[in-house]
Structures are given as structure tokens and as C-alpha cells.
Amino acid sequence: MSTVVLDNVSKIYPGGYLAVDRMTLRAGEGELLVLLGPSGCGKSTLLRMIAGLEEITTGDLWLGGQLANHLAPRDRDVAMVFQNGALYPHKTVRGNLSFPLEIAKADPTMVKQRVVELSRALHIGETLDRRPGTLSGGQRQRVAMGRAIVRQPSLFLMDEPLSNLDAGMRTELRMEISSLVRALGVTTIYVTHDQVEALTLADRIAIMNRGVLQDIGTPAQVYNDPATAFTAAFLNSQQLNLLAATVRTPQNQYIMLDFGPHQLTMPWTDPRAYAVSQHTGMQVIVGIRPDGLVPVPEKTEGPTFFGRVRTLEYHGHEWLAYLEAGIPGVVVPEPPDRRQLNGSANGGRARSMMRRLLNGSAAQEEEEPQPSSQSQSGTHRRADLVVRLGNRPVWRAGEHGRVAVDVSRLMLFTMDGARIDPPRR
Ligand code: ADP
Q1: N or C: less crowded end of the chain, CB within 10 Å?
Q2: What would the pLDDT profile of 186-199 be if each residue is shown by its tens digit?
Q3: Residue 79 lies in a domain
């Protein structure tokens, strides 16, 4: 078993592309850490640096307490599984599984026994004498996983191992990966862009965007108590309501979130009140999940929003309603894209940032603000409130609807997407 520590690790590809930007994180012994983020955010690059397949530009990698930046891949005791777990086509499943042990000159009786045990655990016991070409995609991926695990590495790296399988097979294999790596107790880093996979598999999830770590915590922590608006929106399978509000403190009696045509109040006894009051007079982003808005009768007292039901959407297991409430919406704030360091438009700035990165100094606070072609944090339109209705539509399109708002479940962010009240970790 191995701990993995990344200390301020960056990757700049030849040509000046900053794919991973000062990542610091730790995977504990036997932990299943999931790296989650949209395609192109740098997850595979990070995994490949841990495996030794990609050089680290700056920062340090420690494996099992040993500085590993310059260790050859074979000396890292790491096994990796890719999207298309490549197998030897001319060897049987048994041959594929036993090969890593044979080249390590393991005792043949032990090899035989290990292969049989592992094939049972992976539910491919009956395929041992078949060749990969005769197996289903799911079976092939099980063999690939078995081949990686068979010599019991200290660290197991998986790069989207389920993404080529159909939905049913993905769910099945996901559960098996979870129980297998936990039974073996091998530290595992697992890359995916699939939120459900991350939430169901992980001990902890590290969320990345544009090469930058956005948040890290247990699935419940990052889902219920996200550190950034990006995390909150990315982990929400339905659309997250991101609304602009101005913070007011009328006569210091309470805190008001002023959405224009609607207001919500927060008493001073709310644990978030002090942090929010620091933003008095400023615009903030309020995140509300579709299930945090509950349809109620028209005359309901207390915190509510109201509007015209624009449309209803049937999702099989539930209905969603889109309510026009006249509230300004906000685009998910993202970190500034500073990845193309050699871009011709800002080459001078890029070169100086690369120098600072290579010198190991934190560059962010020195950066001059750059005009953005697409203002990410601006309010830009009236939002439709997305409301979860359950399996029975209580409204019809065109009707007037009112929803109760659970103020304790509001998520509060600055306009650049950082949490106002610090998340608990
Ligand atoms: P992810 O795994 O999150 O989809 P990757 O780590 O594969 O992302 O890629 C991150 C970014 O780095 C992408 O924009 C990709 O185009 C770029 N990239 C990946 N490999 C190379 C390379 N060898 N040379 C230059 N850029 C690369």
C-alpha cells in the first residue's frame, strides 16, 4: 500500500500548454480517490505523471514517502488500467492474467492459484480458456483489471475504465471495482468525468477544472457543502439554480438576499450570517438545487418564490418545472483560462507566468486582470427556476406557481464562484 502526495505539481506540455496547474493533494493508504472533472481538465495528465508516463514540469510527487519525480515507471510499483484495457489477443484469459506474474518469475503453483482466485472474484472464472476476441466488452475490461491487480501493486491507477461499456455493465462493474479494491486495500486513483461514478465509488473526490483543483472531500462533503460554484453545478445531475442577489442588512435587523422581484431573509442566528453580512451592498451568487424548491399553495407564508410555469419536462422518474420568476441568472463561474501560455495574444504575460511557475512562486496574485471575451460571472438574463415536482405534475404550463425555499439549503458564493461561508472539511 502506498500513500500518494502531490505537492504543487504542474504540467506544461511542449508548446506551452499548462494542463495541470499547481495541484496539491494526498491519497491515504488504501484510499479510493476519484479525480473528477470535465473532459480536457487535466485528469489523465495527472494520472500519467503519477504513473511516470509523463514528466512533471514543476512540483514534487511522493509515493510511499519516497520522492518519485524521477523514478522509472517500473520502479513505482504501480498498475494502470485504461479505457480500452489492452490484452494480448493470442493468449487466453488465463495466459493474460498469469503473464505479469510469470515475468516476475513467481512460483507456478502460486500463479495458478492466484489466477483462479482472481478470475472468480472478477466473475470471469468460466472464460479462463478463451481468447480476448471472444469476450464481451465488460469481460475484457474485467480481464484487464485482473491483469493489473494480479501482482498486487502498491498503487492502482484507473483511467476511465468503464467509459466504453454500456450503462448496465458500467453499474455492475462499478460495484465490483468498489468491492475489489476495498477488499485488496490497494490505494487507488480513479479518473472519470462521470459524476454518478465518482459519487458512488469514491472515499474522496478531487474535482478539477482547467487544470486547477476545485474541491476535495468525501462525496457527501463535496455534494452538500461544495467549496465552489463550479463544484456545486458539476455535481448536480439536474440543472442547478444559480441566481444573482444583492446582500442587504436593513437597519441591521436581519440579512436580506434581494433577488429584485423577490427577497429572502436570513436571521442573525444563522451560522452563515456573519460571513454573508461581509458582502452587504454587493452581488452574490445563490445556488439552489431543484429539490430545494417545493411547490406550495398560493397563500403560503414564509420564504417563497413565485412565477409563471413556462414549461414542464418529463424525465421518467420525475417531472421538472421551469418557472419564470424574473430573477437574474448567473453563468457558472470558472477559473480564468490561463492554460495556453504561449498564446500570441498575450505572449509576454504568458512567458512571465511560465517563468514564475518554473521558479515555484505562486503567480496568481501577481497577475494583471485580463479582459475576458466571455464574462463568466456576469448576470445576463432572467433565470428560469428549475423545480423538481416528483412523479406527479402539480402544475400545468402557463399557470401561476409558488415554491417554498428552504433557506438553510441555500449555497452562497461570491461572484467569482468561491464559497462565502467556509465549507467544513
Ligand atoms: P482529461 O483527462 O481531463 O480529459 P487530459 O489530461 O487528457 O484531460 O488533457 C488535458 C489537456 O492537455 C487537454 O487540453 C489536452 O488537449 C492537453 N494535452 C494532453 N496531452 C497533450 C500532449 N501530449 N501535448 C499537448 N497537449 C496535451
Answers
A1: C
A2: 999 999 999 999 99
A3: yes
- Determine the structural domain holding residue 383 and report its residue range: 229-333+378-413
Place of cell 452563515: 272
- 41 lies in some domain: yes
Per the domain annotation, does 371 fall within a domain?
no
> Are both 301 and 384 inside the same structural domain?
yes
Alpha carbons 349 and 62: distance in angstroms, whole number: 31
Are both 29 and 109 inside the same structural domain? yes
H or E element that contains 93: helix 93-103
Residue nearest to atom 16 of ligand 1 (CA): 40
pLDDT of residue 165: 85
55 and 95: one domain?
A: yes
Ligand 1 pocket residues where CB is under 6 Å:
13, 17, 19, 37, 39-45
CA atoms within 13 A on the CB side of 116: 6
Do residues 133 and 29 both lie within one domain? Answer: yes
CA 306, 309, 315, 316 dihedral sign is positive
Specify the higher pLDDT residue, 281 or 333: 281
Rounded to two decimals, the pTM is 0.88
Q: What residue has cell string 506474474? A: 101
Q: Whose CA is nearest to atom 5 of ligand 1?
A: 42
- Which set of grid coordinates corresponds to residue 79? 498498475
